[in-house]
Amino acid sequence: MPARFIGAKVRVKLKANEVWIFDGRKVVARHPRLTRRYTSHDILDHYLEILLVKPGAFAGAAALAQARAEGVFTKTHEAFWAAAKTKCGNREGTQMLIEVLLLHRTLPAEAVIAGMATVLKVGAISTDLVAIEARKALENAETEPDEEPADDLLDEDDGSSGEAPGEDGAKVISLHTKRLPPDLRPGLPDMSKYDRLLKPVTTKRSTATTPQKGTSA
After folding, report:
1. Which of 5, 42, 80, 90 could make an SS bond with 116 (beta carbons 3.0 to 4.6 A apart)?
2. Domain limits, the chain
3. CB 1, CB 17: distance < 8 Å
4. pTM of the complete model
5. CA pair distance 108, 56, nearest whole angstrom
6. Helix, strand, coil: what percent of the chain each, to 5?
7. pLDDT tens digits for 81-101?
């Protein structure tokens, strides 16, 4: 259970393969049902408030070992932890990592990991910077177009792109139709009925032979 529910009454629902724990109608914990005796399933996020106060217990925590085994605690987390301990010492560096782990509650894991990676690149180890870079990564992910950018539609010279030199000698690169997005515009209306209005109308008067001036009928 999350540490904040210590001493509280909760509702437990047993499913075929999982155990769900509710606080009212909200699911606060989910665990797989274990078939072997004396085994447990720990979630690192449930203990963060306690480990923040006692950071010395973090390295040997069973929940950390479980997170590593499941791939939740990634190599980027490890690198940030090592850098934080180098900068601030074991206690403060571990607390800094735990504060970053708390960001997972409000931001997607991919965004937090991207924020840590950016901070590691610039060498400025800070929880606040991780939060800022994580939000930037999230905003960029939300604003990225689903389709390829227009520049990617330009083909390089592969001998079949139909390039032709321009007036100043520069190459003119043509777009391949197969790589362009489909044309979603509706088809053109049938204009065959209106084409008759453009043809000259032939009348008997215009085709009849008229006598020329100075001649007799």
Report:
1. 80
2. 1-41, 44-142
3. no
4. 0.58
5. 27
6. 50, 10, 40
7. 999 999 999 999 999 999 999
